[in-house]
Amino acid sequence: MNSFLTEYLNSKAKQLSNVIHKKMGFIRPLHIITFSLILNACGLMNLLNNKYIIFVFLFLTSYFGLLFNKIYAEKYNYDSIKVNYFHNVAEWVIIISVYMIISNLFKYKINNGTIVIFVIILLLCNLNYMLNKYNEKNSCIELWDKCIKTVMSKDIIDYIKNITIYFDESLTVLYLMIIITYLYFKN
Predict the structure, then answer these.
(1) Do residues 9 and 170 lie in contact, with contact meaning Cβ atoms separated by under 8 Å?
(2) Which member of 37, 104, 106, 121 has the lowest number of beta carbons within 10 Å of its beta carbon?
(3) pLDDT at residue number 182
């Protein structure tokens, strides 16, 4: 189950993948991932130069590029271990680089309340992923899955799924961007 934003972005990514594959068939997922990393780096450079609006645009475009890459790779059978590995590494590079720049740039504006909100949002995103997208191949969260499913009944898990739908990846990125925007404009 995905949020309205994820469904919308996925539909746009599918439309774009048709156009890209028809008009520029030479493009491969590795090109898209590399482009997303470059957009993120350019966005971070703009943030360091106090051009926040450009940072937001480039960061969100970079995020859409990674989302587009998943759709494109699945649709045109470019899925491979190498592509999936590079995609996961790119996601972590983007997350960690943005975290490092934001935490250093706004270190005097971040307080305990902001940290608590960040942690709650990320925990709800993790819970959403675990309840909706967990499969046996991802055994790294197997202990977390067993713990949740032994403590909670099926009805409670279904209720939590309905709440955490608003904390999937796309909406979590949007929430975090709202908090970062608040930090940027905070005195």
Answers:
(1) yes
(2) 104
(3) 93
Residue 179 to residue 2: CA distance in whole angstroms: 22
CA distance 47 to 68: 24
Q: Which domain holds residue 130?
A: 110-187
Angle between helices 29-48 and 52-75 in degrees, nearest 10: 170
Q: Are residues 136 and 89 in the same domain?
A: no
Q: 76 pLDDT band (50/70/90 cuts)? A: confident
The one-letter amino acid at 152:
M
Q: Tally the domains of the chain.
A: 2
Q: At 159, is the pLDDT very low, low, confident or very high (cuts 50, 70, 90)?
A: confident
**DSSP letters of 99-155?**
HHHHHHHTTTT--HHHHHHHHHHHHHHHHHHHHHH--TT-GGGHHHHHHHHHHS-HH
| pLDDT at res. 141 | 65
CA distance 161 to 157: 6
